[in-house]
Amino acid sequence: MPLLHKLKKQNRKEGRCVIIRPSRYEDYEQLVELENLIWNDENTPLVIEWETAEEYAQHVPPGSLFVAIHEGRVAGYISVKNPTMLESNRHVWELAIGVHPDLGRRGTGSRLLAHIEEKGRMMNIRKICLRVLATNERAISFYEKNGYLHQGRLVEEFLIGGKYVDDCLMYKLL
């Protein structure tokens, strides 16, 4: 059964209709709004304020991430990239994810992770990794609940708001 069909069926059973698909240019106004809403100096070492959909599209081309659509609105997104350009590291993806705070704890983030993990398996990806600030305890708990393990910690990696913050490295083997 194709992944999109399985997700739609699962979402209908749970009373939630969430569709995950590649991003399109028409999503970008909502993506800019979401990005500007969710990122702050408690969850990222560099807050980027996007001004326009055009500016966003220059840095994040359509189709370069997957969006979760709930009731016709962008509820979240996920993207992956190879962390290095090395051939010996091609089996690893590094992810970035964001979910609208009004839709947190409703399964949208877990669905996005499941989607990208299934894509990874289909593409012979062995490992998905991520970085998360130690101060972002809610995100760390979310990743742990979705099977991600702690891989290491970069102690006092960032100086944010006058305080040193550790960067936690997490991973999941597929």
TrEMBL record:
It comes from the Bacteria. It holds the Pfam family Acetyltransf_1. InterPro entries: Acyl_CoA_acyltransferase, Bact_Acetyltransf, GNAT_dom. Residues 18-174 form the N-acetyltransferase domain. Keywords: Acyltransferase, Transferase. GO terms for molecular function: acyltransferase activity, transferring groups other than amino-acyl groups. This is GNAT family N-acetyltransferase.
